Amino acid sequence: RYARLFAPGLHVLSYNEVPDELELKIMGALS
Description:
Blueprint: H1 3-6, H2 11-16, H3 20-30
């Protein structure tokens, strides 16, 4: 979702391995 805007290479991991909660934490850390 948002992660792919910041890291196109990591969005695959976020969809396959990272739950939404962790993805939001990553997004918060990047913003």
